[in-house]
């Protein structure tokens, strides 16, 4: 079974085949997502919010990310695993960026990294690619810059920002990025960007014309009973199923219905009689 590569994704774009990407944060989520057929698993820095309980993606560290990247890689044989560069793991200087991206490949076993930003990170992307590190870009709404952006808002709605978004996409492609995530971009603009590039775009809240789509694992499965962004489609209400099952377990423990005889191990009666 051969693993999906960056070339596979480019071939899929050329063939008009849609790319399915989903986040994964641990061994079981990687197993399920790969078995479902997702070509790309993103160990997103959204890990901070949906797994570690932070209120944004800002606090998550390299070591926390690396721990989960290793688990996801252990759960895959075929999907391309992309590790998300967390906040301040690449912004300060190229040395830090190279070192941290290298850790994801050498220690974590990921096949690629993702970082946020457009033309301002193009030079850095080129250096990483030259060093043999495949890079997925990320433009539009970039959650690590949420404080600078003034909140989680759709990006590229006026002439100036729409042109910058297209220019950023082209700059990343020229720098050697193998794919670009477009987050919260108007659908028609995302379609124009997608048509302008030879590398695939992966949309999240950016309409149906991107070359692929990505959603957060916990949102797809409805693992939290919370309001979700407009672009999310919940395919399962698993939080209700989890609560129901765990509630049943707690009830049976308290009412002495669990464990039953079939859940217990036996020992010969004569052995019991000899111990004191």
Automatic annotation (TrEMBL):
Q: Which GO terms describe its biological process?
A: methylation; pantothenate biosynthetic process
EC category? transferase
Q: Which InterPro entries match?
A: Pantoate_hydroxy_MeTrfase, Pyrv/PenolPyrv_kinase-like_dom, Pyrv_kinase-like_dom_sf
- Tell me the keywords, alphabetical order: Cytoplasm, Magnesium, Metal-binding, Methyltransferase, Pantothenate biosynthesis, Transferase
Q: What cellular component terms from Gene Ontology apply here?
A: cytoplasm
Q: Which residues form the active site?
A: 183
Top-level taxon in the UniProt lineage: Bacteria
Q: Identify which cofactors the protein needs according to its UniProt entry.
A: Mg(2+)
Q: Could you tell me the EC number(s) of this protein? A: 2.1.2.11
User: Which biological pathway?
Assistant: Cofactor biosynthesis; (R)-pantothenate biosynthesis; (R)-pantoate from 3-methyl-2-oxobutanoate: step 1/2
What are the binding positions for Mg(2+) in this chain? 45, 84, 116
The protein's annotated catalytic reaction(s) are: (6R)-5,10-methylene-5,6,7,8-tetrahydrofolate + 3-methyl-2-oxobutanoate + H2O = 2-dehydropantoate + (6S)-5,6,7,8-tetrahydrofolate
List ligand-binding residues for 3-methyl-2-oxobutanoate: 45-46, 84, 114
**Pfam families documented for this protein:** Pantoate_transf (PF02548)
Q: Which family does it belong to?
A: Belongs to the PanB family.
How the protein assembles, per its UniProt entry? Answer: Homodecamer; pentamer of dimers.
The record ties this protein, via HAMAP family, to: PanB
Task performed by this protein: Catalyzes the reversible reaction in which hydroxymethyl group from 5,10-methylenetetrahydrofolate is transferred onto alpha-ketoisovalerate to form ketopantoate.
Q: What is this protein called?
A: 3-methyl-2-oxobutanoate hydroxymethyltransferase
